[in-house]
Amino acid sequence: MRRRDFLGTAGLALAAPLPLALPAPVQADGCAPPPPLAPIRASVDRIIAINVCSRPFRAAGPRIEAERLGRKTVVHNYGHGGAGWSLSWGSAARALELVKATGERDVAVIGCGAIGLTTAVTAQRAGLRVRIHARERPPEVSSSWATGVWTPDSRLCTAAAATPDFERQWEAMARTSFRTWQTLLGLPGSPVEWHDGYALSDVPFGPGAAGKHEGEPGYAVLESRLLGDLRPVSRQLAPGEHPFAAAHAARYTMLGFNIGPLCRLLMDDFLQNGGELETRSFESPRQFADLREKVLVNATGYGARQLLGDESIVPIRGQTTRLIPQPEVTYGLYHLQKNVFVAPRRDGILVQSQEPGDFGNPDTTPDRAASAAAVRRLAALLPQG
Ligand SMILES: Cc1cc2nc3c(=O)[nH]c(=O)nc-3n(C[C@H](O)[C@H](O)[C@H](O)COP(=O)(O)OP(=O)(O)OC[C@H]3O[C@@H](n4cnc5c(N)ncnc54)[C@H](O)[C@@H]3O)c2cc1C
Question: Does 18 score more than 70 pLDDT?
Fold first, then answer.
């Protein structure tokens, strides 16, 4: 097995942000060791928010194609599973090609989540006039409740869907997105940041180390195979090189999104560039005929299931829990078997986990007991005292 595949094939059962090349432990040649890790205060009484939303999963991957509906051209851009933020800019670029092919200068975008906002801003940057129509806007969209890390192949499509053609398009999309995310570093509010992350495991890293969640299909593993050059190489840590309660550990580098400031930035950009935003709910695609624009981008995410009757979209429920912010905590954490993932966000220490039966489950009622259990699992991994 090639080194780059080493952890990638471990199956990324959570939000799954591992980059995945894990050479044997090495000395950090001339580099200063990382500073001591500030302790995470993982206790249930520090929970400040629990949010649930549905990943809009399609076995075949996102739908990005143009369709003629009456007198309108509708460019679909939905169904990004657990990778919507990660792939958004590249997906927007593909949708924009289809919009530009119509020759129209005015475009309506239906939806104001990760995909609608980035599509709208991308279209404006290409000189188009854009109006967004959406039932909800941030922070009330599903995208606002995501974990907020670069996971470009997370719950995106089944392994069977990943044909060579699909992989080529996915790779182009992911690389465009990755490049664009780097342009948003260092901005006020830190919409995008790099952090260290620690992958923990009870068994040696390798294929099958991460358990599969009940009822979920075999997802395509793309990042470790196709994007191995994009992130710094991960490093296995020897016992004593990390403070966590785990037999095996590795340090990797994660690209994180602070979703509140990020949405604020995208909204501000959109409005400052002359964008208009209308609150509107569409009950049927027939209502698209009311719009003055001849070209529409359908970025309704999970909403497309009802709006278009598209049953290829399957909800994958996901719940995130935020603990009181700790600005001194600047690292993430992920245990391959213990079903807990942590992102060090500015608006709180974000804890994410999956429950049996989340696949196909459209219920977005928060489950406080599940959040409390995830926080307790996290606490058990942390140094005591
Ligand atoms: C727990 C969890 C964690 C996640 N973590 C990550 C992560 O770390 N990184 C990552 O890349 N992805 C992550 N995802 C996936 C990501 O959140 C989704 O892929 C993304 O939010 C989809 O964005 P969207 O714009 O398509 O949909 P939404 O955010 O749902 O936006 C849809 C928009 O369309 C509007 N709309 C819908 N129907 C209608 C209608 N009929 N009429 C008018 N407007 C309508 C809505 O109001 C909204 O404005 C996560 C998902 C979950 C559940």
Answer: no
